[in-house]
User: What shape does this take?
Amino acid sequence: MTGTRRAVFLDRDGTINVEKEYLYRIEDFQMIPDAPEAIRLLNEAGFLVVVVTNQSGIGRGYYDELKLEKLHCHMEKELAKEGARIDAWYFCPHHPKHGTGHYRKECACRKPLPGMLLQAAKDLDIDLAASFMVGDKLADIEAGLAAGCRPLLVRTGYGQAEEQLLPHDIKAFDDIMAASLVIIEGMPPLPINISV
Assistant: This one.
Protein backbone atom coordinates (compact mmCIF):
# COMPACT_ATOMS: atom_id res chain seq x y z
CA MET A 1 0.00 0.00 0.00
CA THR A 2 1.35 3.41 -0.98
CA GLY A 3 1.52 6.09 1.69
CA THR A 4 -0.11 9.48 1.43
CA ARG A 5 2.58 11.79 2.84
CA ARG A 6 5.70 13.21 1.22
CA ALA A 7 8.99 13.18 3.09
CA VAL A 8 12.52 14.42 2.80
CA PHE A 9 14.90 11.91 4.35
CA LEU A 10 18.08 13.53 5.60
CA ASP A 11 21.39 11.99 6.43
CA ARG A 12 22.76 13.58 9.62
CA ASP A 13 26.56 13.91 9.67
CA GLY A 14 27.89 16.02 6.83
CA THR A 15 24.36 17.00 5.78
CA ILE A 16 22.74 18.71 8.80
CA ASN A 17 25.82 19.03 11.00
CA VAL A 18 29.51 19.39 10.29
CA GLU A 19 31.14 15.98 9.76
CA LYS A 20 33.03 14.84 12.85
CA GLU A 21 33.84 11.16 13.05
CA TYR A 22 31.66 9.29 15.58
CA LEU A 23 29.99 12.45 16.83
CA TYR A 24 28.07 12.07 20.07
CA ARG A 25 29.30 14.87 22.39
CA ILE A 26 27.12 17.97 22.40
CA GLU A 27 30.21 20.18 22.73
CA ASP A 28 31.51 18.79 19.41
CA PHE A 29 28.26 19.45 17.55
CA GLN A 30 28.22 22.19 14.92
CA MET A 31 25.31 22.89 12.60
CA ILE A 32 26.01 23.40 8.91
CA PRO A 33 25.16 27.02 8.00
CA ASP A 34 21.55 27.47 6.84
CA ALA A 35 20.60 23.88 7.78
CA PRO A 36 17.94 25.01 10.30
CA GLU A 37 16.40 27.39 7.77
CA ALA A 38 16.45 24.70 5.07
CA ILE A 39 14.65 22.26 7.38
CA ARG A 40 12.13 24.94 8.35
CA LEU A 41 11.38 25.59 4.68
CA LEU A 42 10.82 21.87 4.11
CA ASN A 43 8.49 21.79 7.14
CA GLU A 44 6.54 24.76 5.81
CA ALA A 45 6.29 23.18 2.36
CA GLY A 46 4.45 20.23 3.92
CA PHE A 47 7.20 17.61 3.83
CA LEU A 48 7.88 15.30 6.72
CA VAL A 49 11.56 15.64 7.63
CA VAL A 50 13.02 12.32 8.70
CA VAL A 51 16.64 11.75 9.72
CA VAL A 52 18.14 8.39 8.73
CA THR A 53 21.68 7.95 10.05
CA ASN A 54 24.23 5.16 10.31
CA GLN A 55 25.64 5.18 13.85
CA SER A 56 28.10 2.32 13.98
CA GLY A 57 29.89 4.14 16.80
CA ILE A 58 27.28 2.54 19.05
CA GLY A 59 28.06 -0.92 17.74
CA ARG A 60 31.78 -0.24 18.05
CA GLY A 61 31.34 0.70 21.71
CA TYR A 62 32.37 4.35 21.35
CA TYR A 63 29.08 5.63 22.79
CA ASP A 64 25.66 4.26 23.67
CA GLU A 65 22.11 4.89 22.49
CA LEU A 66 21.40 7.21 25.44
CA LYS A 67 24.24 9.54 24.45
CA LEU A 68 22.94 9.54 20.87
CA GLU A 69 19.45 10.41 22.12
CA LYS A 70 20.86 13.31 24.16
CA LEU A 71 22.61 14.69 21.10
CA HIS A 72 19.43 14.43 19.04
CA CYS A 73 17.49 16.23 21.78
CA HIS A 74 20.10 19.00 21.66
CA MET A 75 19.77 19.19 17.88
CA GLU A 76 15.98 19.45 18.19
CA LYS A 77 16.32 22.38 20.61
CA GLU A 78 18.76 24.16 18.31
CA LEU A 79 16.48 23.63 15.32
CA ALA A 80 13.41 24.77 17.28
CA LYS A 81 15.11 28.13 17.91
CA GLU A 82 14.88 28.66 14.14
CA GLY A 83 11.34 27.34 13.85
CA ALA A 84 12.48 24.00 12.37
CA ARG A 85 11.69 20.44 13.41
CA ILE A 86 12.66 16.85 12.70
CA ASP A 87 9.53 14.70 12.50
CA ALA A 88 11.29 11.38 13.19
CA TRP A 89 14.76 9.96 13.83
CA TYR A 90 15.96 6.56 12.63
CA PHE A 91 19.44 5.22 13.25
CA CYS A 92 21.35 2.03 12.54
CA PRO A 93 23.75 1.02 15.35
CA HIS A 94 25.03 -2.11 13.61
CA HIS A 95 28.23 -2.98 11.81
CA PRO A 96 28.79 -6.37 10.15
CA LYS A 97 32.53 -6.49 10.97
CA HIS A 98 33.33 -4.00 13.69
CA GLY A 99 30.22 -4.20 15.86
CA THR A 100 30.35 -5.79 19.29
CA GLY A 101 27.84 -8.20 20.81
CA HIS A 102 24.39 -8.09 19.25
CA TYR A 103 25.41 -5.01 17.23
CA ARG A 104 27.73 -7.11 15.08
CA LYS A 105 25.48 -8.38 12.35
CA GLU A 106 24.33 -7.99 8.79
CA CYS A 107 21.19 -5.88 8.91
CA ALA A 108 18.70 -4.30 6.54
CA CYS A 109 18.94 -0.84 8.09
CA ARG A 110 22.56 0.16 7.47
CA LYS A 111 22.78 2.42 4.44
CA PRO A 112 23.23 1.79 1.51
CA LEU A 113 20.40 -0.63 2.33
CA PRO A 114 16.99 1.05 2.51
CA GLY A 115 15.68 -0.44 5.77
CA MET A 116 15.40 2.81 7.73
CA LEU A 117 13.53 4.52 4.90
CA LEU A 118 11.19 1.56 4.43
CA GLN A 119 10.46 1.41 8.16
CA ALA A 120 9.77 5.14 8.27
CA ALA A 121 7.43 4.83 5.28
CA LYS A 122 5.49 2.12 7.12
CA ASP A 123 5.43 4.01 10.41
CA LEU A 124 4.57 7.44 8.99
CA ASP A 125 2.42 6.65 5.92
CA ILE A 126 5.04 7.97 3.48
CA ASP A 127 4.76 7.77 -0.30
CA LEU A 128 8.36 6.88 -1.16
CA ALA A 129 7.95 7.66 -4.85
CA ALA A 130 7.00 11.23 -3.95
CA SER A 131 9.82 11.59 -1.44
CA PHE A 132 13.51 12.54 -1.45
CA MET A 133 16.76 11.37 0.16
CA VAL A 134 19.46 13.99 0.81
CA GLY A 135 22.95 13.02 1.94
CA ASP A 136 26.67 13.49 1.44
CA LYS A 137 27.66 9.91 0.59
CA LEU A 138 27.04 7.44 -2.20
CA ALA A 139 25.52 5.15 0.46
CA ASP A 140 22.77 7.75 0.99
CA ILE A 141 22.11 7.94 -2.74
CA GLU A 142 21.96 4.14 -3.04
CA ALA A 143 19.60 3.86 -0.05
CA GLY A 144 17.31 6.45 -1.59
CA LEU A 145 17.27 4.68 -4.95
CA ALA A 146 16.67 1.29 -3.33
CA ALA A 147 13.71 2.74 -1.41
CA GLY A 148 12.26 4.33 -4.54
CA CYS A 149 12.99 7.95 -3.54
CA ARG A 150 14.57 10.75 -5.53
CA PRO A 151 18.14 11.08 -4.18
CA LEU A 152 20.22 14.27 -4.03
CA LEU A 153 23.85 14.63 -2.97
CA VAL A 154 25.16 17.60 -1.00
CA ARG A 155 28.79 18.66 -1.34
CA THR A 156 29.21 19.27 2.39
CA GLY A 157 30.74 16.52 4.52
CA TYR A 158 32.14 13.85 2.21
CA GLY A 159 30.03 15.07 -0.70
CA GLN A 160 32.72 16.72 -2.81
CA ALA A 161 34.79 13.54 -2.85
CA GLU A 162 31.74 11.33 -3.38
CA GLU A 163 30.32 13.38 -6.26
CA GLN A 164 32.62 11.74 -8.78
CA LEU A 165 31.09 8.34 -7.88
CA LEU A 166 27.52 9.41 -8.64
CA PRO A 167 25.42 7.85 -11.37
CA HIS A 168 25.24 10.41 -14.18
CA ASP A 169 21.57 11.21 -13.60
CA ILE A 170 21.87 12.11 -9.90
CA LYS A 171 22.29 15.80 -9.09
CA ALA A 172 24.71 17.33 -6.57
CA PHE A 173 24.10 20.57 -4.70
CA ASP A 174 26.36 22.78 -2.62
CA ASP A 175 24.51 22.21 0.65
CA ILE A 176 21.22 21.29 2.30
CA MET A 177 19.74 24.72 1.57
CA ALA A 178 20.42 24.46 -2.16
CA ALA A 179 18.96 20.94 -2.25
CA SER A 180 15.91 21.96 -0.21
CA LEU A 181 15.09 24.90 -2.44
CA VAL A 182 15.14 22.67 -5.52
CA ILE A 183 12.92 20.10 -3.78
CA ILE A 184 10.42 22.78 -2.76
CA GLU A 185 10.38 24.39 -6.21
CA GLY A 186 9.75 20.98 -7.78
CA MET A 187 12.33 18.81 -9.47
CA PRO A 188 11.84 17.50 -12.99
CA PRO A 189 10.76 13.85 -13.15
CA LEU A 190 13.37 11.12 -13.04
CA PRO A 191 14.32 9.42 -16.28
CA ILE A 192 13.05 5.86 -16.56
CA ASN A 193 15.27 2.88 -15.63
CA ILE A 194 17.45 4.49 -12.97
CA SER A 195 20.26 2.18 -11.89
CA VAL A 196 23.17 2.64 -9.52
